[in-house]
Design goal:
Structural class: mainly alpha
Order of helices and strands: HHHHHHHHHHHHHHHHHH
Helix content: over 70%
Number of strands: 0
Strand content: under 5%
Largest sheet: none
Length: 362
């Protein structure tokens, strides 16, 4: 409605949203009820710039909404367009295994948006963009930080949730909760993670949005050692596979790893060992980090099954890719899996992790 620049339509919409009658809106604008009625009916179009700017200021609307263009409005639109592009490109970079580049792009954008809001320019499009940028930054940090620093990633996604609460948009809020819940799980705040992910699934507006949440909820349920919840979520996920859009997370290949890890975490070792060799072929392009995650999880399962040779094959492949993609959290998983059984591989992963920590500290 605001995008139409139709003054009458905007005034009517504003009154409905804020529960005002024409007399009350007139008092806010400094006009009488008759003038407001004429404006809404298009009988008083108000073509002069000063009058339209007056209305925009009184209603706290960006001036360009009412067709007023000036340098500050142009800068605002350019900033929002640039920011939207930055968020999209950063997500592509992260999914392609370049999370460090995503962080480098999103950090200055978040700082710029926060500075604008601190200056009193809290337009809805800026707030929404800031929430998306904070989520993107938190998720990208969750890829590049070692385990002891993962609460930082959860901190940034939490800051997005603070904004999302004020938008009456279930899809947007569900997405923020989904990302925040997953970062809480990675930071080992599993109870809070399950709570956030349950909420995200409950308000998901459609089947695809719910399907996006369920794999993360299953993973969090496994981390919480809640077998009944894990099984219930995986059953629903399996039912949706033929009915919802496949994504980088919601697909048979990714779900195989989630199932393996969940079975181990809920005490069903034998079932996990039997399942380890039946990984489905990828049905879509697999993000590099997901290939590493799968290899480390399969190695863990095979180690429990005393298959040391195949464990080494998996972990060597995971190590090479984790170093290439700069994934410290996965290096730490490799170190834990190799401890006591594969000393050379353990030492190589530890050395690579120390190098990454040194570079981050510098």
């Amino acid at each position: 409605m605001l995008a139409t620049r139709d003054l009458g339509a905007i005034l009517r919409f504003y009154r409905v949203v804020h529960g005002l009658n024409q007399t009350e809106l007139g008092a806010l604008l400094g006009y009488d009820k008759t003038t407001v009625s004429a404006m809404e009916l298009g009988k008083r179009p108000m073509k002069d710039t000063d009058s339209r700017r007056h209305v925009a200021e009184r209603l706290c609307l960006p001036a360009h909404i009412l067709g007023i263009t000036d340098p500050s409005d142009t800068d605002h639109r350019a900033m929002v367009q640039f920011g939207e592009s930055t968020v999209r490109l950063a997500e592509i970079a992260r999914q392609s295994g370049h999370a460090s580049e995503a962080v480098a792009e999103l950090w200055p954008l978040v700082a710029r948006l926060e500075a604008r809001i601190e200056d009193g320019h809290a337009e809805r499009d800026v707030l929404r963009l800031l929430a998306r940028a904070r989520v993107g930054l938190g998720v990208a940090l969750g890829n590049v930080l070692p385990e002891e620093r993962l609460p930082t990633a959860a901190h940034w996604t939490a800051k997005s949730f603070e904004i999302a609460r004020y938008f009456d948009d279930p899809a947007f809020t569900s997405n923020v909760l989904r990302m925040h819940g997953n970062e809480l799980r990675k930071a080992r705040l599993t109870g809070a993670a399950v709570q956030r992910l349950h909420h995200a699934a409950a308000i998901a507006p459609d089947r695809d949005a719910r399907a996006a949440v369920l794999p993360l909820l299953a993973r969090a349920a496994g981390a919480l050692h809640d077998g009944p919840l894990f099984d219930a979520v995986m059953r629903e996920t399996d039912k949706l596979l033929d009915h919802a859009e496949h994504t980088s997370l919601f697909n048979p290949y990714a779900l195989h790893e989630i199932r393996l890890r969940g079975l181990i975490n809920t005490g069903r070792v034998r079932a996990a060992i039997q399942l380890a060799d039946s990984a489905p072929a990828p049905t879509m392009a697999v993000a590099p980090q997901w290939r590493v995650i799968e290899l480390v999880t399969v190695a863990h399962v095979r180690l429990i099954g005393n298959d040391s040779t195949r464990v080494a094959e998996c972990l060597n492949g995971a190590l090479d890719e984790a170093v290439r993609q700069r994934l410290p959290h996965q290096l730490q998983r490799i170190i834990r899996t190799a401890t006591g059984r594969l000393p050379d591989l353990h030492d190589a992963a530890a050395m690579a992790l120390d190098q990454m920590r040194h570079e981050m500290a510098a």
